[in-house]
Write a structure and sequence with these properties.
alpha/beta; Rossmann fold; 7-stranded parallel beta sheet
């Protein structure tokens, strides 16, 4: 197994770090947020559902982690002003940003191309590509000031395996790869900053339940199996590695 897949986190790897997690209300984002907090990071929870964010917030506080922040925000609807306000908020409250995990996932439902609507494609592109790009761009002043910063984008296996019925979701997800590669190429002037694209593969998650409703959860790895990889690529261990496509399940 690759070093990053069974990574053992040093005790102080995330102490003092501030990490923004999108899609933090459930699934990969929620699991990552809890794990980052256990390792000493201050987590900024961003997601569409205030109720779900509050649940993760309370879990972190109850476990004794650093007090997080919760920012309700719908990536399908945000604009430049909301992104600018997010940057002001992070700078005012924390004065730093050491990483972003883009775990928000825009998915409607599986259907043939003949049934898919323009609005559905646009929403998936906004959530999966455009909003993560714009948030990262808007927070670049904070990221570049950090001594060591990482951006990790959660992809999906159907981006690389285009098949019937995956339509706009698959197309938007492959767009993530191009964005990551372009950003990594442009960020060569910032050796302390990196960006990578991680594809979990089939894991038991709310997204997988929605896309494969007839599948037995017992046949899939739990989300927690992915956590060591997330910590590796968001922490100092991945310093100097950028622009990669990472397959958790080969």
């Amino acid at each position: 197994m690759s070093e990053w897949k069974d990574y053992q986190v040093p005790a102080d790897a995330f102490t003092g770090r501030v990490i923004l997690v999108t899609g933090a209300g459930q699934g990969v984002g929620a699991a990552a947020a809890r794990a980052l907090a256990r390792q000493g990071a201050t987590v900024i929870l961003l997601g569409r559902s205030e109720k779900k964010l509050t649940r993760v917030y309370d879990d972190i506080v109850a476990a004794g982690g650093p007090e997080p922040a919760a920012v309700p925000m719908d990536l399908a609807k945000i604009g430049e002003s909301e992104i600018a306000q997010l940057g002001v908020l992070i700078n005012k409250e924390f004065g730093r940003l050491d990483g972003i995990l883009h775990a928000a996932n825009g998915f409607t439902f599986l259907s043939p191309l003949s049934n898919q609507k323009l609005d559905e494609w646009v929403e998936q592109f906004r959530v999966n590509v455009a909003a993560p790009f714009a948030i990262t761009r808007g927070l670049m002043p904070l990221l570049t000031q950090a001594p060591d910063a990482a951006v990790l984008v959660i992809g999906e296996e159907h981006a690389l395996d285009a098949k019937a019925y995956w339509g706009g979701f698959s197309v938007s997800k492959i767009g993530q790869q191009n964005w990551v590669r372009i950003a990594a190429d442009e960020w060569e002037a910032y050796p302390q900053l990196r960006i990578n694209w991680l594809i979990p593969g089939a894991i038991h998650s709310p997204f997988r339940t929605k896309s494969h409703p007839g599948e037995s959860p017992e046949t899939l790895p739990a989300i927690e199996a992915l956590v060591p990889s997330l910590l590796y690529w968001l922490g100092p261990a991945s310093h100097g590695q950028s622009g990669q496509t990472l397959m958790f399940k080969n």
